[in-house]
Amino acid sequence: MNDVSPQTVYLKNYRPVPYLIDEVSLDFSLGPETTQVTSRLSLRPNEAAGMGGAPLVLDGEKLELKAISIDGKPIDTSRYSVNASSLTVAEVPQKPFTLEIVTTCNPKANTELSGLYVSSNIFCTQCEAEGFRRITYFYDRPDVMARYKVRIEGPADTCPVLLSNGNPGATGTIPGTDRHFALWDDPHPKPSYLFALVAGDLAHVADSFVTRSGRKVELRIYVEKGKEDRCAWAMESLKTSMRWDEERFGLEYDLDIFMIVAVSDFNMGAMENKGLNVFNDKYILALPETATDVDYVNIEAIIAHEYFHNWTGNRITCRDWFQLCLKEGLTVFRDQEFTSDIRSRAVKRIADVKLLRANQFTEDGGPLAHPVRPASYIEINNFYTATVYEKGAELCRMMLTLIGRDAFRKAMDLYFERHDGEAATVEDFVRCMADASGRDLNQFFSWYEQAGTPEVIVVEKYNATAKTYDLTLEQVTGPTPGQPDKAPLQIPLGIGLVGSDGDDMPLDLEGVGALNEPLIELTEAKKTFRFRNVARKPVLSLNRGFSAPIRIKSGASMADQLFLMKTDNDTFNRWEAAQTAAHALLRASLDGRKPAADTKSFISALRAVLNDSEVDQAFKALMLGLPGEQEVATLIGRDVDPGAIHQARERLRAEIGSSLKDVLLDLWKKTAAKGAYRPNPDETGRRSLRYAVLYAIAGGDSALGAKLAMNQLANSTSMTDEIGTLSTLVTLDVPERAAALEAFYARHHSDHLIVDKWFALQASAPLAGTNQKVRELMQHRDFKLTTPNRVRSLVGTLSMANPFAFHAEDGEGYAILADTILALDPLNPQIAARMATAFRSWATLEEKRREFAKAQLERIEAQPGLSRDLFEIVSKSLAQ
Ligand SMILES: [Zn+2]
User: What residues contact 228, with CB distance under 8 A and at least 6 apart?
Assistant: First the structure.
């Protein structure tokens, strides 16, 4: 991994390949320690590349080359050479030819989980982004799309199931041996990163789906034996997704069979391999007693996401990895729309924005900030980021807002018409949006190229005599690495001028007239919008629905925020007003000022919302949720004291808990379970309110919180109840805590997904002893560095979801993370690098913590032989 010195790859250096591959025939002879792969490639010169006579240079890593021939004849050793990352063949025919390569690899030794590996005796592959080169020599880049035929041969007893992409072909036994084989044929050209192979002793559940045009598709979910009863929700979600994509985007599935395999050792959440999705089993397996509401919602969304990739990613793929947002941003947008359509749009929007703020805004504000479409990278695996995914989705959403829903659908149709079967660019996609709508999106394109979170500064002026309301907006995007100066962006802003009765006033914009849509566009650095015939001074509700991924800086008073919190017609902005008010209270409390008066009125506004029978339970739960500590830290941006932020937030939580005790206890009674568990939106909303209420009550009175929690635990009927209760209990320094955690482990120790939750619960506790506990748990017999889910549960939770413990004053949180990263890097560099991003905000910390964190980063950087993945994250983090 460290035999090649880290090099930067640039978008501007993109060149097409000199040879095209039309067909690939792969023959696998599986063995855990030695798997032999025979690859036959039908190649021809790529005239368009204009590189006639160039040598053929194929990617390959950790392979042993056994044989190589062209058109059936072995080639002389003088004609080819092999190094740690490639195979070069000179003097290849300048007409169509067949290259046959025989290689071996060692799946069992593959702890990186990239390429072909063995997980719990299952052979499994992960090829995105650059894992295929660890299976055979190939042009391992997304713009080389070929048809694949695969033959898999393996032992019949340990590998009764042999799967690959496409449609199934012949199967049979090999006479005189204990081995058998299966053939697979994928008629759709695909890039190598979508290749998949799975083999092992797996059970499956089957169902079917009839497409809109009447084609019957077989659906299968493969799992470990004995887990078949946990697949029903995933299967249901798959069928819902297939139907939705037909109805909303007119897109049908295109093979005879769609398969999903759940595995327990997986670097990612899930992978959209053509016709054979591979999933981290935590996103497949669910029963009410093993999975929480959050798990159910995630399973539904991730099944949908990977299925939607069949069109946005697989049929139309990316020209190069710089275009990653073309498939990811768009597909996240599609899965967000799916969840919004089948559940609550408002709840989904708020959840997505919370995620965006906690992860993407934080990324954008630090040394790892990069544009949605980066211009360079050292290791592409480091760019599966919140910016590419979540901000990428926001850009699709903004285009929909700008051109309208109908034009957006037309543009999507045009995109599939123009680029089906191709490797496309972001420019191709945006051109479809522009062509279908007639809008000029040249300025909009800067959103893809410019990093950083824009801030929009608001100045309001009402003229009672002239009845005009002037709204002056100024946009500023701060410098980010490599981008000191920023151009103004095209920012769509949902807007409402709210009258004192809570109703929206008509919008009559000077120079335009009455607005059809409550939307304005800011395209200049600074602009004044004058609204006419405004009868009374309005309260401004801006960026409704979070129409743009920006920060608003306004002089709005606390009274205005509390007014919007109670009355805004835009559900998102009602929540947003509560968040803005809470941020102001937290900041005031941090600065040591006396926030008492405002806190009181904030709490009484909250009381009104909780008592409002028109408001649904899921929304009440969201209104009770205070801004996260990371979000507050990101907003402060310098000399951050995470300990002080935690204390301020705890004080506000305590005040809410004690002042609203009566309402909260009443809600606690009203939200008790009636009947069996159902994962539908209403019941999910009820439970989310119930556990938000418990958390609030416990903040005001920990003994009462513990008592209610213990009672609930004794009567729990679902994992949602157990986790809902325990996640409050672990925040309390009460005697019940330890016994409850022990009992939970005793109850569930044989279920690895629930053991992950047990590790995460303890790592999430904002208590003084947490770091010590995490050190102990790293020695627990169930903790394994080679299992990504386990590492994420324990050390990932500590560093990404527990700012209090991670940023402990003595630097111990940073030391735990650095120790883990250093031990992990030789085993699994992708996960090591991912974990290291938790240091991304180190430079914004107050001096003492800043020095501790920096020292740990330097300790990692000084380690000889760092992986390219980790080197990139650490060196960029320190380079500020
Ligand atoms: Zn994806």
Answer: 203, 204, 205
| Active-site residue set | 306
Strands 423-424, 317-318: pairing is parallel
Closest-CA residue to 752 (of 790, 785, 717, 792): 790
pLDDT in tens, 622-675: 999 999 999 999 999 999 999 999 999 999 999 999 999 999 999 999 999 999
Token pair 């380690």: residue: 863
d(CA 495, CA 59): 52
Measured in angstroms, how far is the CA atom of residue 313 from the centroid of ligand 1?
A: 8
Gap from CA of 90 to ligand 1 centroid (Å): 37
* Interval 484-532: pLDDT, tens: 999 999 999 999 999 999 999 999 999 999 999 999 999 999 999 999 9
CA–CA separation, 313 and 116 (whole Å): 22
Spatial CA neighbour of 549 closest among 385, 442, 397, 697: 397
| CA 337 – ligand 1 centroid, Å | 15
**Is beta strand 115-119 parallel, antiparallel or unpaired with respect to 122-126?**
antiparallel
Q: What is the pLDDT of residue 828?
A: 97
Tens of pLDDT, residue by residue over 251-262, are 999 999 999 999
CA of 712 to the centre of ligand 1 (A): 38
Instruction: Give the Å distance between the CA of 270 and the centre of ligand 1.
Output: 8
3-state SS assignment for residue 237: helix
pTM: 0.98
747-785 as b/e, with b when 16 or more CB fall inside 10 Å?
ebeebbbbbbbbbbbbbbbbbeebbebbeebbeeeebeb
User: Cis (ω within 30 of 0) for the bond into 129?
Assistant: yes
